[in-house]
Amino acid sequence: MTTQLIVAAVAGIATIVLLIVWLKVHPFLSLMAGAAVMALVAGMPYQDMFSSFTAGLGSTVAGVGLLITLGAIIGTLLVSSGGADVIVDTIMAKTPLQRLPWAIALIAFVVGIPLFFEVGVVILIPVVMFAAKKANVPIVLLGIPALAGLSALHGLVPPHPGPLIAIDSLGANLGLTLGFGLLVAIPTVIISGPLLGSVMAKWVPNKVDSALLATASAEKELDRKRPSFASALTVVLLPVFLMLARTVVEMVGAEGSGFGAFIVFVGEPLNALTITTVVAMFLMGFMLSRTRREVSAIVGSSFGPIAGILLIVGAGGGFKQTLVDSGIGDMIATGLAQAALPPLLAGWIVAAVIRVATGSATVATITAAGIMAPLAGGLTDTHTALLVLAIGAGSVFLSHVNDAGFWLVKEYFGMTVVETFKTWSLMETVLSLVALVAVLGLSVVV
């Protein structure tokens, strides 16, 4: 039976890799097919090959999908109102030229909390190009800190899809994971961003291409009423504050008091993001003289871009549930336990292997979280949160030619494939390893 389950696990994951990498099938369909193959090989009746998948998809979308949707609304309101630009411009205006890499890393860290990686790239690339042109420095010197900040937050900090699905799969505390994620992200961004970028700029000293600069200029709207810096920062940090406050109240055991119970309520992830969405509609919409119809249209426009993300995350939940119901998850967990690998290191390795094979950080996180879920039951709350971060760190390891982000960075920065490997791919690898070391270090302390 154990041999059959091992073959089933390998067949399911191999199906996903084959479909995504070689046949270029969408990850949603690939995860669905992988779950079906795994269920059949594991010995489940063919009539029930999608039963676990649909149950897992439904519970995942119910638990995680709403959070991703609210996060997308907040991000869209920030972008459409110019709030994200205000944060960028305010920090840039107060930064001397020699400190630009550090300022760019700080901006990426802040805007990377609510914004998806791709949205953050679109917002920050024009800033990076203008700043690099003005300072007459290689674009990599400023581009790597920006990418490091966005990538670290994308892999480590909710409400990004990867950390959310891992939190849901492992039963981790979201506030605790958020707090630890921000702690881990700080040294990770510093080392893989400004420090590494200064070295890479000597390897790839390319200056900004005029054609690319013109494109970036066209993407930046300047003729609109924009919110204040304080308003934009409030929208970014409000959900972080609410969720961390809840975690603090629970850790000190104050949730029994009336005030403590209220903080726990507003700090519950769904409530915190709902409150922030309403605040964002006012500060980034109505207070800027947007009509109710215009604000409604902005909110509606946020749903289309995340439809694919929701489906992939839901399919990942279905794949995870198939792992659990077939007994494969318990079997793998037992094998990892017998191998005496620390759970945090095991989670990182599993996520890194799947990331390199598929090119998808989200698929790597989903699959690794499903495999590691049985082991999480024996961990403390703090170590379960750290397991989420270890998996997140592994999910960004070694981006290469099978990752859309690789080509996005190559084209935006006007680099060759070799130069992209020497910069973006190396940065992602260093980021992943530094984050792992930080997570392992935290595990000793807490």
TrEMBL record:
It is found in: Cell membrane. It is a multi-pass membrane protein. InterPro entries: Glcn_transporter. Keywords: Cell membrane, Membrane, Transmembrane, Transmembrane helix, Transport. It holds the Pfam family GntP_permease. The keyword Membrane applies. GO terms for cellular component: plasma membrane. GO terms for molecular function: gluconate transmembrane transporter activity. The chain crosses the membrane at residues 5-22, 28-46, 53-80, 100-125, 137-157, 177-197, 229-249, 261-283, 295-319, 331-354, 385-409, 421-445. It comes from the Bacteria. Belongs to the GntP permease family. This is Gluconate transporter.
